[in-house]
Amino acid sequence: MLNELLSPDRILLDAPAATLEEATLLCGQLLVDTGCAEPGYPAAMVETVRELGSFIVMAPFTALPHAAPEQGGIRPAAALLRLKGEIPTESKNGPVRLILGFCGSDGNSHMQVLSQIAAELSQPGYIEALLQADCADAILSI
Fold this sequence. Notes:
Elements: E1 11-15, H1 20-33, H2 41-52, E2 57-59, E3 62-63, E4 77-87, E5 96-103, H3 107-121, H4 126-132, H5 136-141
Parallel strand pairs: 1-4, 3-5
Antiparallel strand pairs: 2-3, 4-5
Helix pairs in contact: 1-2
């Protein structure tokens, strides 16, 4: 379950960000501030965003920025940033409102985190519930 990877201090709601890179840095900093990633990890996440472009928007309204574990992942974790507005993209999944960043400590844990996130995002109504939640605890209960 995604709530095993998230904690209230890795959830930021209604964050102002004008670009996907800016939102990714904010999300990555949540991983750093909680001891899940090294200080350089957010910048590595931004490089992945630049390399993948709109392919990072893997679900409706949802971008999944990350970097390779060897770029600073300390332990498996996820951080969620819900934006105050939308960031336009060229993705078929539309503009971005949710940034769900993650890290792993090795290739295996990295893939497990990605699989867990993908499974949750595919549940009917899940993304809409995240967009409507009024606090971090509500996010964790979804």
